[in-house]
Every structure is written in structure tokens, then in C-alpha cells.
Amino acid sequence: MNTFGEQLKLSIFGESHGNGIGIVVDGLPPGLAVDEAFIASELARRAPGNSPLATPRKEADQVEILSGVFNGYTTGAPLCGMIRNTNTRSKDYTPELPRPGHADLTAHIKYKGFTDHRGGGHFSGRLTAPLVFAGALCKSLLANNDIHVEAMITEIAGISGNGLTEAMEAAILQARADGDSVGGIIQCIGKNLPAGLGSPFFGSVESRLASMLYSIPAVKAVEFGDGFELTKMHGSQANDAIVKSAEGAAAAGYETKTNHNGGINGGITNGMDVVFRVGIKPTPSISKPQETVNLITGEPAVLEIHGRHDPCIVPRAVCVVEAAAAIVFADLLLCQWSDGVRKDR
After folding, report:
1. Helix, strand, coil proportions of the chain in percent (round to 5)?
2. Using an 8 Å Cβ cutoff, are 11 and 24 in contact?
3. Which tens digits make up the pLDDT trace of 55-92?
């Protein structure tokens, strides 16, 4: 299935080298201003071909809104946005040689060889472009409620830092020169989320975020708050002491002294910042020789991937992580207040 959400439902469609890619967003309240300049700026953050650290494939990534918007505002009807593919090189792909680390083999098995293999088809990271489009709409909804989502790189190739440092850039360029790739970690913060969003167990904020975040290709780890570091603490260290809020706003007049648990208790927001990190694996498309199997002959084969690929997708994934979080937070807000306007202020 390619549908996500409870009150805000998204369906993503398209393939990397097909006619286009896009998304249908159903459940946005009517009257939300659609800021096309902001949408374009968000898509530009993700777009390829703008840096020596990324793939040289250049796409305009201009969204054509087919429905759900009239005179610059959402109508309340399903909103469909489509992005045409304009720069493809399908000859770079050999369908009988599945690429290690990609979905080529699993897709071939599950869909009995009928998938579009070009550029990864429906499994391609290119499908994150419509996700960023939907995220931009959701960021506008959140901003109307003074809620903001911010992400940043905290690690690449084992090098820690706040943002993309020179050392990180050097590691990416070295990986490219070696015909290899590197991964990293992105931290994301949801600011000013009201307390009380989410539900216990299967509807928890962590469950919803993790479900969406793991839909981003190459995400292999998600942790909330201090995450795995919590396992090294005693309860007296890990518990966040509760105090009266100075301004009496965050959580019905309460807040916590620390935020080890990332703004979530029992699957429900507590009024503190929601903090999480995602681990992104090295880009699987590398030019070094790799072992694979010929799907036609069944014989072992050696694959050298040619074409245009990122030596590290982490820099371009920052806005994708933000978009994913914004979509989840917008859905949670709409579950709480159907018109998307918070009533706790």
C-alpha cells in the first residue's frame, strides 16, 4: 500500500523514470493558503544537480497542482500534485543484475518481474520529491498554529557536528573519488507542539513517526529523545522531572526540567520539543565492483554501477525528514481538531 494517515491521508504514485511522480493529499481543511514560492524553495532543498556532493541528475521538480486548490487556497477536496520527470537515462540500468543494497531483488520477487526497474522505479528516492511537496503544505498548516519543524545533520561518515561541516564534505568527496558512498544521522525537532497529541500503543506519536520515517528510502534507524543512550542510564537519570510551567502554556501549566524522552510519554506529546534522530545508510549505488546474481541465468555476476548517483544522500534528506515529520504532526493536529486549528491557546 502507498497510503498513509488517519485524518490526513496521502497516496504517493509514480516511478523514477516514468512520465511523472506525485501525491494525492486528502483531508486538508479548506482555506489553507498555498504558498507556491515556499513550496518551490522546499523542493529546491531536495533537488539534485545543485552540488558536487550530490548526483548531477538535474530536474526542475516543478509541481503541477491538478486539483484541490482554487484562487490560491485549498478547497477541502483531495489535492493532487504532480512532478514531471524530464531528465532520465534508463540505459544505465541492467534489469537482470539486481543492485546490492537496493530493492531490485525483493521487488523482482514480490511483483514477479513486472516492476519498472529504471532508476529504481517506484522504490526510488526520487519519490521523496512529492513527499516534500506534501510536507510544505503541512508546514504551512503547522505554522498557522505556531508549530515548526527543523532538522539538521549531526553526523556523516562517523564525523559529528552541527550541520554540514568541512570535514563532512571532505569525507563525501573522498567517497565519491573512491567510487564509494557514506551515510549519516539527521536530528529533527518539532517545536511548540501542544500536549495531548497522539494515542497509546498503536497510535503513539513514536509509532506514527517511525512508520512515516521508515518510508524514506535508506532510513535504517530511528530513535526518540536520548534513544539508545537511555539504556545506559538509571531511572533517576532518565526520568524527566515535572515542574510548573513559568508561563503555564506548554502542557496545561506543566513542563519537564529535562527532555530525555523527546517530548513524548505514553505515546502522547507532553508539551516539550519532540526530538528524534534518523540513521541513513550509505547510498547503495556505488561504482565499485559488487557481487550479484544474473536473474536470467542464475549465475554469479559482478556489477559495476554506472550513472548519476549521490555519494551521500544525507544533505538532500534533511528537508525530506522535516517533511515526513510535518505530515505526521499535521495529521495528529487534525485528529485533535478537525479544522486544523489548535484550541489550547
Report:
1. 30, 25, 45
2. yes
3. 666 667 899 999 999 999 999 999 999 999 887 666 66
Identify the residue whose cell numbers are 532520465.
Answer: 88
- Note whether 32 and 73 are within 8 A (CB): yes
Q: What CATH number does the domain containing 88 carry? A: 3.60.150.10
Domain assignment of residue 341, yes or no: no
In angstroms, rounded to a whole number, what is the distance separating the alpha carbons of residues 62 and 47? 10
Contacts (Cβ under 8 Å, ≥6 apart) of 318: 45, 151, 152, 153, 186
- Count of structural domains within the chain: 1
**pTM recorded for the entire structure:** 0.94
The answer for residues whose C-beta is within 8 angstroms of residue 291's C-beta and 6 or more apart is: 100, 300, 301, 302, 303
Return the closest-CA partner of residue 4 out of 30, 31, 23, 22: 23
Cα–Cα nearest to 34, from 177, 138, 154, 160: 138
Interatomic CA distance for residues 59 and 85, integer angstroms: 7
User: What SS3 state is found at 255?
Assistant: strand
C-alpha cell at 159: 564525523
Residue 126 is classified by DSSP as G
Count of residues for the chain?
345
User: Is residue 342 assigned to a domain?
Assistant: no
- Calpha distance 144→100 (Å, rounded): 44
Task: Report CA 261 to chain centroid distance, whole Å.
Answer: 21
C-alpha cell at 106: 525483493
pLDDT of 56: 67
Range of the domain at 168: 3-336
SS3 at position 158: coil
User: What pLDDT does 247 receive?
Assistant: 62
Residue 58 cell numbers, joined: 538535474
Cell numbers at 108, concatenated: 523482482
Residue at 152 is within a domain: yes
Mean pLDDT of 227-245: 96
Q: Which of 312, 276, 309, 315 is nearest to 183 (CA)?
A: 312
Residue 277, strand partner residues: 187, 223
Assess if residue 344 is contained within a domain: no
